[in-house]
Amino acid sequence: MWSARRVLSLVMAAVTAAGPIAVHDHHPAPEAGRALAAGAAALPSGFREQVVFAGLDQPMNIEFAPDGRVFVAEKAGRVKVFDSLADPTPAVFADLTTNVHNLHDRGLLGLALHPEFPAVPDVYVLYAYDAPPGRTAPYWHDSCANVGGNVGGRCVVTARLSKLNASGAETVLIQDWCQQYPSHSVGDLHFGADGMLYASAGDGANYSVTDYGQLGNPVNPCADPPGGSMAPPGAEGGALRSQDVRTLGDATGLDGTLIRLNPATGAGAGGNPLSASSDANARRIVAYGLRNPFRFAMRPGTSEVWTGDVGWNTWEEINRVTNPGAGPVNFGWPCFEGGGRQGGYDGANLSLCESLYTAGGQAGPYYAYNHSAAVVSGDTCPTGGSSTSGAAFYPPGGGDYPAAYNGAFFFADYSRDCIWAMTPATPGGLPDPANRRIFVSQAANPVDLAIGPGGDLYYADAGGTVRRIRYFGGNQPPVAVAFASPTSGPAPLTVNFDATGSSDPDPSDQGLLRYAWDFTGDGTVDATTPAASYTYPDGQPYTARLTVTDSLDAKDSVTVAISSGNAPPAPVIDTPAGTTDFAVGDGISFTGHASDPQQGTLPASALRWRLLQHHCYTLDSCHVHVAQEWDGVAGATFPAPDHDYPSYLELELTATDAGGLSVSTTRRLDPRTVDLTFVTSPPGLQLTVGSTVRTTPFTTTVIQGSANTASAVTPQAGYGFSGWSDGGAQTHVITAPAAPATYTATYVKQRLPRNNFKIKYFSSQEVVSEVALAARVLDGHTHTYWHTNWFNVQPPHEIQIDLGGSYRVTDLYYLPRQNKADGRIKNYEIYVSADGTNWGTPVATGVWPNTTAEQTVTFPVKTGRYVRLRALSEVNGQRWAAVAELNVSGVPV
């Protein structure tokens, strides 16, 4: 949810059991290649995906140095460096795992090299810091179980932007970004053409509910203004941190912003739009109103910044900052999303949003796509959930790709596992949202895009690899596919190999492929037939390599790991049982063990656990993210996390033996659900539950114990909110009970505000007393009144009200003033007019009541600006009318 509620979810691919595992390397002769992992990615003709680095632990960001080195940031906090694209074994440049809070979507997410690197050997990192405000890491030790779990609103952290020197030593430039919830964390780092450092960050808010700072225990741990417990309309916490720069009377935070910095100091760069502010953070901000700007890119040859903003349930945005020195630009979150009002926050009637709705000035997205719609018509990417997760520009001057890609904007979606290209309409022009094309479908967990050497697009795969997309304009290399069975077991081990699944995309090469097997990785060709076998002695792990060559000597290689004399371990999850279900907050304990044919019972240090959250668009279409990990333990306990439904949990245990063989087993845990029904009185009005506005009555299925925001949209259709059946405020959080429940929002007719009303005409007034003038019907005081001149003016008596604008009027309220029991006026009429001249027929008639209680006259909807009340006849020769107060209800046209 992730999916529908779209937080970016970071997942590492499961470790597979020992079996036929293949890694590929494609290259035209005579280039030397290295092992590249196989994948099922689909690309345009002539393009090929290759894995350049494998065996990484959740790589999040990749950077290419001018000297050929490649830096990779791993989520847990390690920065690794490869000497070149041909280097299979990285060195650890910096280990920040003690400081980094690696949980859910928090971790080391941003990485950048100084533009003069390596002459200036500074490496910049952006990460979640493992401690609450004012505390020192490690504080949480990557676990929030003791405070209710990672979505309980109590596991609060900050974040750091730091500079690492050539030896990896850290200098902290900024520590800020209070994050109450485990997603919408910090994002990306890039240098602009101006030499300044840009950084992005999310709002740190709850992804499940409309969050204005009302949740958690204690409430408001980030000390958001106005302070203390949060409630509409004045609350400024939660997602409203993204609008904090609009209230410069209090300290400004950096959540939900894009900032531009002096890379030497971390201070706001000169020329920033708020450079004159006395607030240091305000001086840094060039854009705000962002939910989770996980990745952004600098458009070459310009000062433009293009951000991908991960949305909630409906929209993903690509936002464009054309001039970082102007503004700052407000992209509107949480008040706006996808170019329109965000229903959940609009329904909460929050001042920061209501004032933005009135004043305007927010910037719409450059391009937005709906979670339920295809980005490119006919693409094979799944819909139903989305999370934009990568951004990169192809060089406008071109590279190895076809010219159509020159200046193109590439953007990725982690949930859909796809990468698209937005190409310019004209050479050298802006990428045009109308010119979208699918570039990679079935990509492997893309979480960062970068243009590398030769103009190739690279992406980081959260499952553990870095991948390159290459283009072959002429002859294309073959695709080597090797099947091996078995790949492990007692020695001597006879393995059967089969390469008949190999192919070549060029029709002229069909049937002309040549095969070369090197079964022991010593460089010797051991067989040249598609199918072969080899018997391995006991000793060491082996690597078998298949090389397939086409008729023009283009090659592709695939490797298979063989473990002779070593059989894989067998992990077992002892608890929880397979029938275990849960409600949010339930404590779930797990235990397990593993045995190995060679080692016997494996120690706890050989075990690794992961809690996987599956969020589903339908019951059989889901995406996965890692909620928590435990290394080297035989068991632990965690509180069941909150999440949208449909969803479920999967507990995975991986055992690794001394020979490096790993096997995983899993156990599925399903939630206990409950139906919540929402109705209004009168029926048919709208309510907001979560992010969506719906017409009542409706029923939604949620997980027991989950938090669900309900807002009574007010005013609407001439009605104003009166109260909820559960006693909650107009916007409040419902904790889902164990049994089905119905929640009713009661509405009353909404009277129009009278500050714009004026008296248009009155037939007469008694001027002997200041309390009896016509204007008194609008003063809000029941002890004053309009009293006609009873002595000189015959009935009918009338008064006309100018509403100050055009309304669909439905009711008139009046407070008659009676001095005697027999009454004074017998009959009345009510009219509504558009121009105050043409009144037509009355919308209502009646008998003047013998009471001093307020009267409500309801009539069919009539559109107009003017309302007239006429008192028609007299009683016992008396000739006056008296009214204390007048009002109407209606809806603006």
TrEMBL record:
Q: Which SMART domains match?
A: PKD
Q: CDD domains, from UniProt?
A: PKD
Q: Which InterPro entries match?
A: 6-blade_b-propeller_TolB-like, FA58C, Galactose-bd-like_sf, Glc/Sorbosone_DH, Ig-like_fold, PKD/Chitinase_dom, PKD_dom, PKD_dom_sf
Keywords from the named record: Signal
Show which residues constitute the signal peptide: 1-17
| Residue ranges occupied by any F5/8 type C domain in the UniProt entry | 741-891
Q: Does the keyword Signal apply?
A: yes
Q: Which residues form the PKD domain?
A: 478-562
Record flagged with keyword Signal: yes
Q: Which Gene3D superfamilies match?
A: Galactose-binding domain-like, Immunoglobulins, TolB, C-terminal domain
- Give the coiled coil ranges: none
Superkingdom, taxonomy of origin: Bacteria
Q: Which PANTHER family match?
A: HEDGEHOG-INTERACTING PROTEIN, HIPL1 PROTEIN
Protein name as catalogued: Glucose/arabinose dehydrogenase
